[in-house]
Amino acid sequence: MTATSIQLFLFILSCWVVLCQPFLYKYMMMMMMMNKVAAACYCQLRRLGQIRRRVGPEITAQLVLALVTCRLDYCNSVLASLPQSTVEPLQRVQNAAARMIFNLGRHEHVTPCLIQLHWLPVHFRITYSLCTLMHNIRAGKCPWHTRGIPCHDSLSGQ
């Protein structure tokens, strides 16, 4: 390689970094947020694991719903366009919560438990919450801060 080709490569690389820096920053912030949410959920699961034998499976399921899945669902509509690898820590938390409720081992399949609990996988939960939000906006049953979102009905041409 000549000196000019190395300089050209470094120039192109620096331009790419400058152009992609805002996207990388947002992605890194989302990854940090996902890791913090997952850490908080695992902390709650550890605490629930200490009392699980004393309260029974029904109360354990209710406590997991109250303390863990509400954290998974909070503001998850901002995660809609992120890749599956970014949402994967939340899916692992949900799998650990189902394993705790059914007292499963680490290497046992958790999908039948998720079905029995009627829990959607995390990426489908995100899609469901967005669909519910849009339905409420269209029906006029939305919070006041979302009433300014324009809705376009492509079928009726309005």
Give helix % range: over 70%
Show unreliable segments: 154-158
- What oligomeric state is this? single chain
Report the total helices. Answer: 5
What about the largest sheet?
none
Overall mean pLDDT stands at 82
Binned strand content: under 5%
Count of folded domains = 1
| Morphology | extended
Topology:
Blueprint: H1 3-55, H2 57-73, H3 84-102, H4 111-116, H5 122-139
Helix pairs in contact: 1-2, 1-3, 2-3
Describe the structure.
The chain is mostly helical. The chain has one domain (24-143). The protein has 5 helices and no strands. The longest helix is centred in the first third of the chain and has 53 residues, at 3-55. It is extended. It starts with a helix and ends in a 19-residue tail after the last helix. Residues 154-158 have low confidence and may be disordered.
Gist?
The protein has helices spanning 3-55, 57-73, 84-102, 111-116, 122-139.
Task: List the main descriptive attributes of the protein structure presented here.
single chain, 158 residues, mainly alpha, 0% strand, extended, disordered C terminus
